[in-house]
Amino acid sequence: MNKTTIALAILGCSTTLVTAQEASSGPDEALLQQQIDNLRQQLIQQNQQLHQLQNSLSTSQQQSVAQESAGRVSSEQREPVKSASTEGLLIEQHNVFDRKFSLDFGLSYAYYDRKQLLLRGLSVFSAIFLGKIDTDRIRSHQWTADVTGRYTFNDRWQGELKIPYVYRYMDYTASPDPNRKVFDSLSDSNIGDISAAVYYRLLTETNNRPDLVWNFRATAPTGRDPFGIPNTPNSGDSNLVNVPTQLATGTGLWGLSTGFSAVKTVDPAILFASLDYTHYLKGSFDDISAGQGLPGEVQLGDSFGYGLGMAFALSERLSLSLNFNQSFNSEAKQAFAGESLNKVESSNGNAATMGMGVTWAIDDNLSLVVNWAAGLTPDAPDYVVGLRLPYRF
Length: 393
What we know:
The protein is α+β, with helices and mostly antiparallel strands. The chain is built from 3 helices and 21 strands. The strands form 4 sheets. The chain has a 12-stranded antiparallel barrel with strand order 1-4-5-7-8-11-12-15-16-19-20-21. It has a 4-stranded antiparallel β-sheet with strand order 13-14-17-18, with no helix packed on it. Strands 2-3 form a two-stranded antiparallel ribbon. A hairpin with a 5-residue loop joins strand 19 and strand 20 (367-375). Helix 1 packs antiparallel against helix 2 (29-75). Residues 73-81 and 116-134 have low confidence and may be disordered.
């Protein structure tokens, strides 16, 4: 029962009392009526004051709640606003720490078309490992299948293991003399270089800063290295052109890399960027020639790379991304037994690609990511096409 009801009850009792008094005392009727009117007027004023106080209290409470909410929003950390489709893309370009475990199946195809090459067994961007051979033109087709597992320890730490398998097919055209051309091809496959990585989340995205992740990766020389692969005469012209007996599927050296990746939500787009640096450890081999049995040491040049891109969620299940990547590497070094390391001339490189990708979220756990990239420099592949199936548990 509120104050207004109590006041009306009091007024009703007063009216009853006055009525009883009127019945017993007629001369005081006018005075009693005047008292009733005064009480009624006071009750109306008090009721108005009560409503004013209630309105003021309600307004003050609403302002306090709004200020507290604004304070929480300004200081609260938040995850990137992402749909089911962009989450699959972020797993590849960045990291997602809200899934305990993810398993990623990937398949990519890279095509290289080079004219007037002189290959000496060293390649920095895993393009072609052939040994020493002079040719007019080489076409290389490379398929890489890999399985990548990621385990999230908490909202800061994540571990990764990647196991690739490489298949290569190469055909070439050589001109041993002006009157003849030699055509041949060879193919090979083997496991690639296995890598393990750890990721640490330095910053969580807020309204004013991006999500920032540091990474460290170690790559083991589990693939077939390009050193010491013997050459054999071409079957069609045994005295003029030699070709390698195998194709390499790895660098043959331990690689250590570190870098950073960042993501910022700018509705309706998601911006991402990355920086990385790779250093190869020096390795000793029984043969660093084309099967001539000459031992020595090799060290590939350090490389520095960066990437930029953005993604748009076209719908809850479909997103589109654009990206640009570039990598620079310094000259490699090699030395035969008993000698000091010397730079391999023209072994430095600059590989740049421009690509795009489409991500389709099949369901809440499984996505299909299709990527395409075109090479912009001679050291990059002509084009690369790949698809990935990340499954998040």
